Amino acid sequence: MNKTESLTGSFLIAMPSMPDPRFEKSVILLTSYSKEGATGILINKPYEMNINEVFNNMGIEKNENKNDIPVLNGGPVEMDKGFIIHNADLELKGSTEIEGINCAVNTTKESLAVLYEKEAPLEANLYLGYCGWTSGQLDNEIKSNDWLICNSHKDIIFSKKYDLMWEKLINEMGLNLSFLSNKSGLA
Predict the structure, then answer these.
(1) Which of 59, 95, 104, 161 has the smallest number of Cβ neighbours within 10 A?
(2) Domain boundaries, the chain
């Protein structure tokens, strides 16, 4: 596996000194990473709405949903577009598996309707928008010490403890927030 493939499916964790306020204390699941660029979904910034409200906003009348699927801010790109991250064991037409983790991403309205009708419990989240980087942009941000990288796991992705994710992952890495520096360098 080469370096460009290895980051897909990883978490990006914003450093405490993150210069962009949109990503303060953010956790991003990288859904693709190559020499052409990278994409990811911000997983810990919930909106104050659920899937029922999304359907209402789309003009689709449904009975109250069996599933309280959360709706989260997936990132600043195409914020009117929905992205579903779900357990890969749940087969949805049009899903693309995310390498390195038992999850998949889907953008079809048909899949959203299927999720809406599924019986609970269900491992799925709906995100509006995504994060995107051009060729070399994410690499430069990592070198500038804007992001930490760690292995991802489903427990975090489908946890509803959004306000605790960032600090939990930093602690799992064995890091102490008070010792993290925004200075980067090479040894």
Answers:
(1) 59
(2) 3-179
Buried b (16+ CB within 10 A) or exposed e, 49-69: ebbbebbeeeeeeeeebebeb
Higher-pLDDT residue of 91, 68: 91
Instruction: List beta partners, residue 14.
Output: 147
Note the pLDDT tens digit of each residue in 10-39.
Answer: 999 999 989 899 999 999 999 999 999 999
Q: Residue 168 and residue 5: Cα distance in Å, rounded?
A: 26
Among residues 84, 3, 90, the alpha carbon closest in space to that of 41 is found at 84
| Confidence class for position 60, pLDDT limits 50, 70, 90 | low
How far apart CA 100 and CA 111 sit, in angstroms, is: 22
3 state SS for 74-106: CCCEEEEEEEEEEECCCCCCCCEEECCCCEEEE
pLDDT for res 128 = 94
Kindly report the pTM of this predicted structure: 0.87
CB neighbour list of residue 139: distance below 8 Å, 6 or more residues apart: none
Could you tell me which CATH number the domain at 3-179 has?
A: 3.40.1740.10
